[in-house]
Amino acid sequence: MRRGAVFSTALCLLCGTALAHTEQSATGGLMSGLLHPVQGLDHLLAMVAVGIWGAFLGAPLVWALPVVFPLLMVIGAVLGIAGVPVASVEAGIAISVVLLGSVILTGWRAPVAAALALVAVFGVLHGHAHGTELPEAASPAAYSAGFVIATGLLHVAGIALGRLDCLPRGRALLRGTGAAMALAGTWMLARVWS
Fold first, then answer.
1. CB under 8 Å to 101, separation ≥6 — which residues?
2. Residue 59: is its pLDDT beyond 80?
3. Other Cβ atoms within 10 Å of 98 Cβ, number
4. Does residue 2 form part of some domain?
5. Which residues belong to the signal peptide in this entry (predicted)?
6. Which residue range(s) make up the domain with 165?
7. What whole-number distance in Å separates Cα of residue 65 and Cα of residue 44?
8. Does the N-terminal peptide bond of residue 60 adopt cis geometry, omega within 30 degrees of 0?
9. 3-class secondary-structure state, position 113
10. pLDDT, average across residues 32-58
11. Alpha helix locations (H) across 24-139?
């Protein structure tokens, strides 16, 4: 009996507020934005992959890619918040995971302009999805700040993972990671198209 009461109390403490009470504050928007990129596997993988690829490519792309992606993501978010349609956003996001995983797998040393262009397009697509998924009661500015901060942290995590390349089996590990990302993206794309 006592265990049941403890368990019930613990569950109540872990439960969120009632759905009728939406987050009205900037803090709620910031938290929603911070959580959004890590709650979707597609966003998480793409953002980490940008960091890994940047680390593999080295200067100046190790820092340029993680700056360009969130900048263009903000532009995409503004388009999404404004209701400007962008064709095939979900398919484009899945393709971003496939292609970013593939460039890690193959070790493609893209020219600077090509790498920046690819990441810029993907940034717009991911940002548009964030903008259209803006919680109704969230502050758009706070939400945007949150997802940009989370994106930056995921890029830094990817850069740290990309540094494994220096270890004896690091390159093989990273290529395997790229393969897993590409397969996950292919699965996501199949789900979008089904």
1. 45, 49, 177, 178, 179, 180, 181, 182, 183, 184, 185
2. yes
3. 20
4. no
5. 1-20
6. 25-193
7. 16
8. yes
9. helix
10. 93
11. 26-39, 41-57, 61-81, 89-106, 112-132
The single residue listed with the structure tokens 């903000």 is 74
Q: How buried is 175 (Cβ within 10 angstroms: 0-12 exposed, 13-18 middle, 19+ buried)?
A: middle
The band of 14, judged by pLDDT with boundaries at 50, 70 and 90, is: very low
Q: What is the pTM of this model?
A: 0.83
**Assigned domain for 12 exists:** no
- Which of the two residues, 7 and 166, has the higher pLDDT score? 166
Does the pLDDT at position 16 exceed 70?
no
Q: Is residue 6 part of a domain?
A: no
**Count: domains in the chain:** 1
Give CA–CA dist 148/169, Å, rounded: 32
- Tell whether the model's pLDDT for residue 161 goes beyond 50: yes
Q: Whole-angstrom Cα distance, residue 146 to residue 125?
A: 17
Q: Identify whether 13 is part of a domain.
A: no
pLDDT at 78 over 60: yes
Q: Give the dihedral sign, CA 59/95/74/164.
A: negative
Q: How many other C-beta atoms can be found within 10 angstroms of the C-beta atom of residue 152? A: 17
Q: Which two tokens stand for residue 147?
A: 């997802």
Cβ(69)–Cβ(140) under 8 Å? no
